[in-house]
Amino acid sequence: MIMIHPDQIQIVGLDLPVRIGVPEEERENWQVLSADITMEMARGFDTMTDELSCTLDYSVAANQARDLAAGRPRLLLETLAAELVAYFLEDDRVDCVEVTLRKRILPGTNHVAVKMRRSKRVA
Question: Does 115 participate in catalysis according to the annotation?
Answer without folding.
Answer: no
